[in-house]
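User: Structure please.
Assistant: Input sequence and predicted structure:
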Amino acid sequence: MSKAHDPWWRSAVVYQVYIRSFADGSGDGVGDLAGLRSRLHYLAELGVDAIWINPWYPSPLADGGYDVSDYRDVHPAYGTLDEAKQLITEAHESGLRVILDIVPNHTSEQHPWFQQALTSSPGSPERDRYFFRDGKGIDGSQPPNDWHAAFGGPAWTRTADGQWYLHLFAPEQPDLNWDNPEVHAEFESILRFWFDLGVDGFRIDVAHGMAKDPALPDLGLPEFSVLAAEGQRDHPHWERDGVHEIFRSWRAIADSYPDARVFVAEAHVRPGSLAAYLRPDELHTAFNFDFHKCPWEADRLREVIDRSITDLAAVGACATWVLSSHDETRHLTRYGRAHTGVTNPMRDGYQPSDLALGTRRARAAALLMLALPGGAYIYQGEELGLYEVEDLPEGALQDPVWQRSGHTIRGRDGCRVPLPWNGDSPPFGFGPPESVPWLPQPGDWKAYTAEANEADPTSMLHLYRRALRLRRTDPRLNGGEFRWLDAPEGTLLFERGNGLLCAVNLSDTPIALPDGCTPLLSSGPTAEGALLPPDSTVWLRHG
């Protein structure tokens, strides 16, 4: 089926905007709507189909905006609701769809609902919107169960009247009780509010964690293992069947609009179970964490690609592909490490990286990802060749895991450093010359600015632009069938449509390219005699 007949989201390339770090229009050191609006032309020229914006709602920012105090407005540091409306209009005029983040598992502790709950009595309707429980022990001084929070410490905090409330992440992020009909109604209203303003979809944060076992049983797991337990069968707060009723009601809302409105799940689930979230009456697409976490190994990648396509095709869904995000180490850095799979920035320590090797592999991975069938996600800055900033001063770290771990785990700030746009010194055009970005930028990023990339025809930016242009214009890439071809050990070779081949060399020796092929786009120079060097990808026209 060609892209012309497919819904836009089935093959869309979505650019993730971490708004605090994209572009600063006000000069206060924090990215904002004015900065984003000023760079829409850059995104349109890049060739993406949509932008996904991390939470822009009012928030105390205890977790970078994933602690929302008002779901129907914009944080003053980012702009106003009117500016958000203007952004949506201008993005559409530029040919870009707009996807927002929705955070339904928890609110901010400053949300009016939670403030009402704190001043209400135990057992009140206000407290039933969340999980308030009496503690264990004679005086109730022990948490209701042994659950740990993802950011460290217990998943329970005691209130002034002696009860405890549940927070799977930070204490500033109390979990909502989705067994309460009022919670359902409120979020359905929130979705309609933004859909009515023209938003094209939502990425659903912690989509697999919204339903809880009402018995809240003990888990018996150590601290900082809560995320590792994602995918465990019959888990009391991950991947419970109750989430599917929620998503069926949300899909009905999306389908009630004349233009396609979509949902993207952030769902860490058991192998083979993601398809349950993407049935025709539930969500549209989901982040592909198996691909995201996969090491730079041919057999492992082929296994993940096969499983992703096959499992989701069973329910009529499309796969998506992603290399980096605001929650993980940038892939250019991890591809230069001894272990190239995703490591947990909220658990694992520093690992040295060969950035030259990581860059070659990142270029190759980009062409692999963009040649696969389905959708794809680009995290801001990967198109500039940015690496993980692993030497941020301790005084600059703002990820809550840094505090919750007793300053032993640095967290995710290294992938969230503000983007470099132009110039030879910080803030590199992120804001006005006198502004100070909220996280410090490395001095050597002068070689990675959009301006520097623009001036170099062999740069990462030009590679992404050429790949996205071919993906959009060549019908074999934007709708053609997918099939594997025989290839040497340590390599991948597949065909899209009739005669477009993608060859990826993950081995440590050059490989011969297939006979009768003409290169269309390569991640790097090909060797003499039509050989593909190690850690390279090439798109080929056959015949």
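The first strand starts at residue 13 and ends at 17.
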